[in-house]
């Protein structure tokens, strides 16, 4: 059985590797098929505020430097090997290597997405299970109306309201950035508190964006589980409500984890909006800023990084599920 | 039949509420020129007026009438929703039926491709595409269809696979019906419920994406959009210090929320209570 599991893990890993390769290929071909030609994505636009004027000789040198005069397949090999060495070129706007910017931004996004994910998953599971248990009762009906309503609010609008209520009206939390600038911290705890208070609003906002999806998912899976014979058997044996819920939860956890991992790409979109509204210096705001500046290398590098994080999380979820559920990999 | 028809499902309280809100917005979009006398692009009024008899919701920082932007914004949202959802429906259904009905290796490769596609975070990719293309509503619609059809194809394909091995399809084939005949007469009609769900889900996605992209500055300047209104409202530094948020920020946000909610409610009503 163990061999089957490792075989399953390896084959999934290969699939993710192919996916990542395809993402790199998309990134390679996009600038080459889009209007403006590939050099546009390196030097920036002609029609921006500061138009880049290049004479033919420099242009040829640049084309030579970036291997743009080579045949396409040679270019592609160069591109892949650069990408594997984490070389995504230079930022047009900041004029530093793209990787340096990305690595500086990544921790903030992981902090924001990670805490929001933990928060929304825990609450989503608790509320979803409760709602499924009380299926057809008032609580369930109420939740089935409230949750979709939350889902209908655009993330950036929710963020704006939160800034207004918790930032301006009550003044409880800071509304932008990730730390107080030029602050002298008395100690580690002071520093941590400052980061947490800056994290609070965007995190709550992202969690509120993510939770309705988790709730509906958990509710649907648990409703299916509750109809199974083992639940009836457990009830007939007179087991306590808590014990039965535990059984149901353990049996539902694998699809829940898989689905939540699959929704991560969707959560990235929420992160872009929320980081933009709260000026939180993570990958999301970087994507927004580099879109506004038409900073193509950073935009594409950020896309690769975010895809890599999403794929890695999916792979971790797959591995975790194969350990939780012994049947994985068996046909 | 013991199964409720689509029409019966829509007659639930949720369905009626959703349809009522949707009809309200459709009415506003159609009757826009009669509801407001200002053009949404008209900047002739003085800026930052408070609501009054001339301007029911005041004016924004460049002197546009907020109410008429709100009214005309419903046209943009509904148009994007309509075009994107039908674009996804047509391409997704064709691809899904083809993949599910043919089966075999081709089907497996196609569905692997769709799985891969669904895992890619779509917003950064949309922004990259939009950064290369010029900002126009048609480009946004094109991109949203491009990124959306795999979802439609996946659902349709699953249902097609079930239908293909069901009794009446087998019977039709044994009776000598050709592939085209079976797909046209027995598969497509049985896909109608799924198609309606696809349209509803894609409309939700399209409205939220359009307003979101407009908020990020990707909007088409010649089409008024609720997302753009929110963008300018919160980038105006004094919006939260005066009462301007009440008539500038809130109405646009509430309109998006209500319109999306109407589709969500219709979708829930169509799925029926589980």
UniProtKB/TrEMBL annotation, chain A:
Keywords assigned by UniProt? Membrane, Transmembrane, Transmembrane helix, Transport
Tell me where it resides: Cell membrane; Membrane
The answer to whether the entry has keyword Lipid biosynthesis is no
Q: Name one Pfam family in it.
A: BPD_transp_1
Provide the membrane topology annotation: Multi-pass membrane protein
| Organism annotation | Methanolobus vulcani
Extract the coiled-coil ranges from the record: none
* Record's protein name: Peptide/nickel transport system permease protein
Biological-process GO terms, alphabetical: transmembrane transport
From TrEMBL, chain B:
Q: What processes does the entry annotate via GO biological process terms?
A: transmembrane transport
- Name the keywords, alphabetized: Cell membrane, Membrane, Transmembrane, Transmembrane helix, Transport
Compartments (UniProt record): Cell membrane
One Gene Ontology CC term in the entry: plasma membrane
Q: Which residues cross the membrane?
A: 16-35, 78-101, 245-266
Query: Where is it mainly found?
Result: membrane
What InterPro entries is this protein classified in? BP-dependent_transpt_permease, MetI-like, MetI-like_sf, OppC_N
Q: What Gene3D superfamilies would the database entry show? A: MetI-like
What's the protein name? Answer: Peptide/nickel transport system permease protein
Annotated source species = Methanolobus vulcani
Q: What is the lineage of its organism?
A: Archaea, Methanobacteriati, Methanobacteriota, Stenosarchaea group, Methanomicrobia
């Amino acid at each position: 059985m163990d061999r089957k599991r490792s075989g399953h893990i390896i084959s999934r890993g290969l699939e993710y590797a192919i996916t990542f390769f395809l993402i790199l290929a998309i990134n390679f071909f996009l600038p080459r098929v889009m209007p403006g030609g590939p050099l546009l994505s390196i030097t920036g636009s002609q029609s921006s505020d500061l138009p880049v004027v290049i004479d033919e000789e420099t242009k040829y040198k640049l084309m030579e430097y970036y291997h743009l005069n080579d045949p396409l397949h040679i270019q592609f090999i160069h591109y892949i090997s650069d990408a594997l060495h984490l070389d995504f070129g230079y930022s047009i706007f900041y004029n530093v290597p793209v990787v340096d910017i990305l690595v500086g931004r990544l921790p903030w996004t992981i902090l924001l997405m990670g805490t929001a994910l933990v928060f929304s998953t825990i609450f989503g599971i608790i509320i979803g299970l409760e709602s499924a248990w009380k299926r057809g009762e008032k609580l369930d009906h109420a939740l089935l109306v409230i949750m979709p309503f939350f889902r209908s609010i655009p993330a950036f609008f929710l963020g704006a309201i939160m800034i207004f209520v918790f930032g301006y009206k009550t003044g409880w939390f800071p509304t932008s950035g990730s730390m107080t600038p030029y602050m002298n911290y008395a100690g580690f705890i002071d520093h941590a508190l400052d980061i947490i208070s800056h994290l609070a609003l965007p995190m709550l906002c992202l969690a509120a964006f993510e939770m309705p999806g988790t709730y509906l998912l958990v509710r649907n899976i648990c409703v299916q589980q509750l109809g199974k014979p083992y639940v009836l058997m457990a009830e007939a044996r007179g087991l306590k409500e808590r014990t039965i819920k535990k059984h149901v939860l353990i049996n539902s956890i694998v699809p829940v984890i898989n689905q939540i991992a699959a929704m991560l790409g969707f959560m990235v979109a929420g992160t872009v909006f929320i980081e933009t509204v709260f000026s939180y210096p993570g990958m999301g705001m970087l994507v927004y800023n580099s879109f506004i500046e038409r900073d193509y290398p950073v935009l594409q590098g950020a896309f690769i990084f975010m895809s890599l994080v999403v794929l890695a999380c999916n792979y971790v979820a797959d591995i975790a599920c194969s350990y939780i559920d012994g049947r994985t990999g068996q046909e | 039949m013991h199964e409720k028809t689509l029409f019966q499902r829509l007659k639930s309280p949720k369905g009626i509420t959703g349809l009522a809100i949707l009809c309200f917005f459709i009415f506003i979009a159609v009757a826009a020129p009669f509801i407001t006398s200002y053009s949404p692009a008209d900047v002739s009024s003085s800026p930052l007026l408070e609501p009054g008899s001339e301007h029911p919701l005041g004016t924004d920082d460049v002197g546009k009438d907020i109410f008429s932007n709100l009214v005309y914004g419903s046209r943009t949202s509904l148009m994007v929703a309509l075009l994107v959802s039908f674009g996804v429906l047509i391409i997704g259904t064709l691809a899904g039926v083809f993949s599910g009905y043919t089966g075999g290796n081709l089907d497996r490769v196609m569905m692997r491709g769709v799985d891969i596609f669904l895992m890619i975070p779509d917003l950064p990719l949309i922004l990259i595409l939009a950064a290369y293309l010029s900002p126009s509503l048609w480009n946004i619609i094109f991109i949203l269809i491009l990124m959306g059809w795999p979802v439609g194809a996946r659902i349709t394909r699953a249902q097609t696979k079930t239908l293909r091995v069901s009794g009446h399809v087998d019977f039709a084939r044994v009776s000598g019906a050709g592939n085209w005949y079976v797909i046209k007469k027995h598969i497509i009609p049985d896909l109608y419920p799924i198609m309606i769900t696809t349209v509803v889900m894609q409309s939700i996605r399209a409205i939220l994406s359009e307003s979101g992209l407009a908020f990020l500055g990707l909007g088409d300047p010649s089409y008024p959009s609720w997302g753009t209104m929110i963008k300018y409202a919160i980038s105006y530094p004094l919006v939260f210090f005066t009462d301007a948020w009440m008539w500038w920020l809130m109405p646009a946000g509430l309109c998006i929320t209500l319109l999306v909610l109407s589709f969500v409610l219709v979708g829930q009503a169509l799925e029926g209570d589980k």
